[in-house]
Prior knowledge:
Distance between the termini: 48 Å
Shape: flat
Strand order of the largest sheet: 1-2-3-4-5
Number of helices: 15
Oligomer: single chain
Number of strands: 10
Mean pLDDT: 76
Radius of gyration: 27 Å
Strand content: 5-15%
Low-confidence stretches: 404-408
Structural class: alpha+beta
Amino acid sequence: MSGEQARGFPAFPAQTGRRSTSGRSWWGRAWVQALEDTSLDSDQLRKGRRTANSGQVGTITISPGRIAATVYAPDDTYEAVVQVDRLSDDEWRRFLDQVAARAGHIAALLDGEMPHELVEAAADAGVPLLPGIGDLDPSCTCDGWELPCQHAAGLCYQVGWLLDEDPFVLLLMRGQSREDLLDELQNRSTTSSAAAVEAPVEEGDPALEVFARQPGELPELPSLPAKIALEELVVSETQPLPELEPATLPLLVLDAARRARAELKALLTGDADPWELDEWQDAVRLAADYPSLADRLGTAFNRPADLALGVQAWSYGGAPGLDVLEHQWTPEPGDLARARTELLAAADDELEISIDQNRLTTSGEVVCQVRLDRLGRWHPYRLVDEAWVPAGPADRDPTAALAVPDVW
């Protein structure tokens, strides 16, 4: 396969909040786990987390088989490098076979997701996509003998942040750029389509019988319903439909097109949206997607404050985010216990944590809350004027959910 390419990623600024270095995505966590399993010195890992969060790591350059960055320490400047095994041409072919096997795999990658089933299928085909223990080979120009030293560890932790945002970073490390992969998948699709068209139809093929049949007569078209004048429509028994503003109708048409695209994607991936929205929830969705409609929707439901809060929850977590804003439910006790243990272990100070169905709330000097949705993600909340309000994006790691600056 083609293409030696490299990508440069701007340096992360110093983290003003509590940013987790364990990875937000499951593949990001797998990367960090490989780093920590390789290390023989937990003290260097602790210093590496501090290096990552302090903004000392410069521009990160990722190329096939190699990660590099300059680390600006207080005492000197160092060059940290991490080598990663590249996949062979044969391994890439087998990986692409797995990606092309399901349209949902391509769609997920383009949406910034790395499906579990894709990685598992690749592993079954003998393609080790995610690194394991000992697969990372760090080096640095500092005098430290540890592998990794704090500078290489800091670089690796920040690479985990990059992986959280874009799984193609992992594929580039393994040897192929995003452009090359998508081109190869496009070539495969074109070749397979052409082969299907040119394939001869053998005698006895059921297709011959189907095409030989004479089509029957089409049924008569049903009669169309009578037209309804706009003034005959009402929102309620007493309130007539307000006139549509010139900009409103195009927005609604655009919204219908976007929803149709989402339904098509669900059909291709086999992952139907489990959330059926009622009128209020759909109004929140519209207001979140099209802020110019918010005032009209808030007035129509006579709930402008609730709508604003719902839009905030939706913007952070979609329909599940709105659900945890408005409803409670009872998860598995083990999920809550594990989350509580992780929060206690990650806290710098002692925390008291209470559990109320799907909500974990801290008390004492630090007061905050995380809420578990039905998809297994935690939503951070903060207390404002004695009311809990959404504070940041959802995350499958409760400690990462609480790492957003608005919570602490």
